[in-house]
Amino acid sequence: MIRLLVNGTLLTQDDSLPVAQALAVKHGRIVEVGGTDEILWLREDEYEVIDLGGRTVVPGFVDPHNHFSIAALEVFWPDCRMADSIEALQRTLAKAASETPAGEWVRGVGYDHGRLPGRRHPTRADLDAAVPDRPALLLHYSHHQAVANSVGLAAAGITRATPDPPGGEIARDKAGEPTGLLFERAMSVVETASRAGWETRFVEVARAATLRYAALGLTTIQDAAVSPATARRYAEARAAGALAIDVGEIRVGSTGWFDPPDDAAPGAPLKLFADGGYRCAMRLGDRVTGFLFYDREALAARLVRAWRDGRDVVCHALGNLGVETAVGAIDDALARERAGRGRVRLDHAMFLDRTSLARLVDLGVGIVVQPSFIWDHGGRSPAPDLMLRPFATARAAGLPQAFSSDFPCGENSPLLGIQAAVTRRTRQGEPSGLEEALPTEAALRAYTVEAARAAGVEGDRGSLAPGKRADFLVLSANPLECAPETIKDIEVLQTWVEGRPILVRP
Ligand SMILES: [Zn+2]
Description:
Bound molecules: zinc ion
Strand order of the largest sheet: 3-2-7-25-26-27
CATH topology of the domain at 85-196: Diaminopimelate Epimerase, Chain A, domain 1
């Protein structure tokens, strides 16, 4: 059957026909895009005409850096993002312990030390008071640091004699005892152990999670940290038909989110972390802070190896020193491996200087950035020659720039991300680099065509054009015409995946 959707306002994101009124869909693909009369001519023996009543249609949103596997499981763990005291965290964890099946780690997610009195991180003692007799882990909202209780530390074998791993730190008190707080790579063992049991229930929660994503307009995403164990859960979920949207996998190692995979299958993109997340590698004047995971040479060697093994690379680089190191490594690797190389992209690039930006443009290496971090955290550049999330500057320089959420580290809604990029304002209305605001058209492109390109699916997704997969949304308002501060309130009325409406609001 051919379906003819007519009388709409289609923002196609396709340069050959940017605005259209109608489209025809058959066998999961877009057959034609054009004017209503033109599309009505395509009626076949079996057909359905759907009147869009003037509503706006856009391609399904693509999120090339999401953490679906973590987000799906978070229904099991209490959300601690809004906790504003240690006592509140303790109450939440004690309650979670009473609801956690025997044998599992108690987990709480998302605490924000900025909300706690004195901006103090919780300690093992704080957690021991709430959960004394079984392992517990409380994750920071960044997912780059965490606090374990005493049983948890013992279970992971972390004692005062344990050295800091490269790229991480075990926080210690004056007497040298671990405080429970684990930064970056130091949290890998505990985090992996605390999630393992819960992951066996992934299939059970995956379908509902994909439908929550679809309700926000997401039709294709990439999970930016898939361990070999998580990959097995994805295989189960696909076999069970539990994924209602398309989820791609970016591989990490079996030992933790921040470690590269030793055995990823050819074709699967793999993740290389140049630096930390919350403690990213920064250079301010002659002061260097944060964690750099590799030097330029070691990172270049890993890149070349990945390409020779037939893998694309997603390079995480957040601080200006992380970005500088990653750009240098990519530069060296491209010079060494001219033919047959895979793709490479740079994710986050939160602190960018003009030298790194210009080099990325020259190399043709795109970035994947997170506009919703503006909504949650705002912020301003720590130095005059350093730019914080310079979306407009990157666009003007011709740097390919895709949007993503990094959910659950940032807000999942693409429309909220688009609003944040256009207004450059936080939830509280505070400005954060107004000069870097994007026009709505550009922000929409960054979450559709540009995001599809970053995910390597631009031949098939990201715009409304004949031959592409029929993934699209019907919106309650046109983002190009509504007030910028109301873009996040636009409702996704219908979400279509492969030519079928998987979600329709009354
Ligand atoms: Zn991430």
